[in-house]
Specification:
The complex is a heterodimer of chains A (396) and B (173). Chain A is of the alpha+beta class and 396 residues long. Chain A contains 14 helices and 10 strands. Chain A has 2 domains: 121 residues, Alpha-Beta Plaits, CATH 3.30.70; 240 residues, Cytidine Deaminase, domain 2. About 23% of the residues of chain A have low confidence. The chains are: A alpha+beta (396), B alpha/beta (173). The interface between A and B is large, with 52 and 45 residues. Chain B: InterPro entries: APOBEC/CMP_deaminase_Zn-bd, CMP_dCMP_dom, Cytidine_deaminase-like.
């Protein structure tokens, strides 16, 4: 079970807004409801609030609590006056009560908040896509593989931070990279930035024949295009090689809109291009799949050894990635859960799913294996892999 | 700031989001870096004007040496003038470098990192020191250039939106 980093709105505690409620006799319900609908200002943004809740008095009598209107909408005097005009003052004694301000987005919130006041709740499965066993196995494989690149980084005197970008539809690795801030003296050459640049370079190279006008040159010797050690590996499938050929963007757009079905598509083989999902996208066969053009990193999966810093997190937003999996949370600097939740901020124009501590146990076990069980408290453990950066104030 | 605006216009003329910037080295007053957006040309969504400018600075041996010797004391003498508020990514990049000061034209309420959406420049929790940042310089000009761009269509986007009915508004909020 992967640990999804939920948007702030899904983990926030109960916040309430004051409304007038009154405890009434069940037999007066129709009369009171008619009064509310006819005479009181309608509530704004509280559609998730149930109008009535059942309540039982100390002596066991069943009564109803009814929401009248928002506390800010009317003064108590005006409300009393309106009740008197309708002759309801003996049946309805208003009091202020706090009800949930926001609709619950998760079952946990729903369960916790209903004590304040009952709300409606419809679970939105798009928010928490199910990851099949097969998909999870592929994810764990990729995370293990991204950690494999840290050894090379360390051997070159770099920080052991690596990144890998994968097309989930084909399981093709689009690029891998590691942090090169030490060797280049360019402190912004983080693994994510290098990896995004590598995918872009791949796209440019792949479409050079069609785009002869492109003449972008990195203007300096330390550019990511020249020095950064990146392997744009090809795994298995060939269907993507022609994806740059025609500017037909349907695929990218669909994947963005439809992350769930993408997740459920757990066939990491070329045959997946003939799956029903792709037919839904208007592509009935592999030929159509081939003519689709990638737009930045739209819909790709990103595998990271460490939680990215704010810069890299936002770079992933700009790149329109679909999902991010990382192993080590960076408490002081992380932009995808620790310090900020840049992947799900309401004002940003693109959101993606984030899973943390993916493969964490495996890395911890590896450290223990290398240093003995007491390594956690010893200095020698701190220089290895996972522990090298955890708890440090480093931007990854 | 005027040079930055010219760079923004240049970006607009080649179909890029029209943002331009210059970096000034305070001890000499010289412009040591210029940049304009290059995300479409590079097929890389992170190639914002600021990154182009930073790369230009580090491509010059003199400044690359200063950066390599003591990165933070070099960058604290560098001031950025940019037509639109740096986005969250650039705001964080500038903080990690240790930029001396940022002046920008118009705020960016969609992904501004220097006050509009996030406060990356003043955040006390994040690593590295906060930096001063002020907006509002040639704001009107920056906005008009941006609007000129957005009444057009982004042909690089998947399924470009048709914007037949958009007209350029001249009045400013």
């Amino acid at each position: 079970m992967l640990d999804q980093v939920l948007p702030e709105a899904e983990v926030r505690a109960l916040e309430t807004v004051d409304v007038y409620i009154a405890t009434i006799e069940p037999k007066h319900t129709n009369q009171v409801i008619k009064f509310i609908r006819g005479k009181l200002p309608a509530t704004q943004g509280l559609d998730h609030i149930k109008q009535i809740r059942k309540t039982t008095t100390d002596d066991g009598a069943v009564k109803l609590d009814v929401v009248l209107c928002e506390g800010l909408a009317l003064s108590a005097q005006v409300l009393d006056q309106l009740l008197k005009q309708e002759g309801l003052e003996s049946m309805v004694t208003p009091r202020i009560h706090g009800v949930p301000k926001y609709p619950p987005l998760t079952r946990d919130q729903f369960e916790q908040w209903k004590a304040a006041w009952p709300t409606t709740f419809r679970e939105d499965t798009n928010r928490h896509p199910k990851i099949s066993d097969k998909d999870e196995a592929a994810i764990m494989g990729h995370i293990q593989s991204v950690w494999g690149h840290t050894a090379e980084a360390t051997s070159k005197g770099e920080l052991p931070i690596a990144a890998m970008i994968v097309d989930p539809l084909t399981q093709q690795i689009m690029a891998t990279s590691y942090d090169t801030r030490k060797s280049t003296g360019y402190i912004l050459q983080h693994a994510v930035m290098n990896c995004v640049a590598a995918v872009a370079k791949r796209e440019r190279d792949g479409s050079l024949s069609q785009r002869a006008e492109y003449h972008h040159q990195q203007p300096h010797s330390i550019g990511s295009d020249t020095v950064v050690p990146i392997s744009s590996e090809k795994q298995g499938a060939e269907p993507v090689t022609g994806r740059e050929s025609t500017p037909s963007p349907i695929c990218g757009e669909k994947r963005k809109k439809n992350p769930v079905s993408e997740t459920n598509l757990s066939t990491p083989s070329p045959e997946s291009s003939a799956s029903p999902l792709l037919r839904d996208e208007g592509a009935g066969d592999t030929e159509d799949r081939r003519v689709k053009k990638a737009y930045l990193c739209t819909g790709y999966d990103v595998f990271l050894t460490h939680e990215p810093c704010v810069m890299c997190s936002m770079a992933l937003v700009h790149s329109r990635v679909g999902r991010v999996f990382y192993t080590v949370p960076m408490a002081a600097s992380g932009g995808l859960g620790s310090q900020h939740k840049i992947h799900s901020h309401p004002s940003l124009n693109h959101h993606f799913f984030v899973y943390r501590q993916v493969g964490y146990q495996a890395q911890q076990d590896k450290v223990k294996e290398q240093c003995g069980d007491d390594s956690m408290n010893e200095n020698k453990g701190a220089s290895i892999g996972l522990l090298a950066l955890e708890n440090q104030k480093v931007d990854c | 700031m005027k040079v930055a605006l010219e760079l923004a216009l240049e970006a607009h003329s080649v179909g890029e989001v029209p943002v331009g910037c210059v970096f000034v080295y305070e001890p000499t007053g010289a412009i040591i870096g210029r940049g304009r957006n290059k995300t479409n040309e590079s097929l890389n969504g992170t190639r914002h004007a600021e990154f182009e400018g930073i790369d230009m600075i580090l491509a010059q041996e003199e400044y690359f040496a200063k950066n390599k010797q003591d990165s933070r004391s070099f960058w604290k003498d560098v001031v950025l003038y940019v037509t639109i508020e740096p986005c969250v990514m650039c705001a964080s990049a500038l903080r990690q470098l240790g930029i001396g000061h940022v002046y920008f034209g118009a705020g960016n309420d969609r992904f501004g990192g220097n006050g509009s959406v996030f406060n990356i420049h003043t955040d006390t929790e994040l690593p590295h020191s906060p930096y001063p940042s002020e907006g509002g310089y040639y704001r009107g000009e920056a906005i008009i250039i941006l609007r000129k761009f957005y009444v057009g269509e982004n042909t690089h986007a998947p399924e470009p939106k048709k914007k037949k009915h958009r007209v350029l508004k001249e009045e400013l909020p």
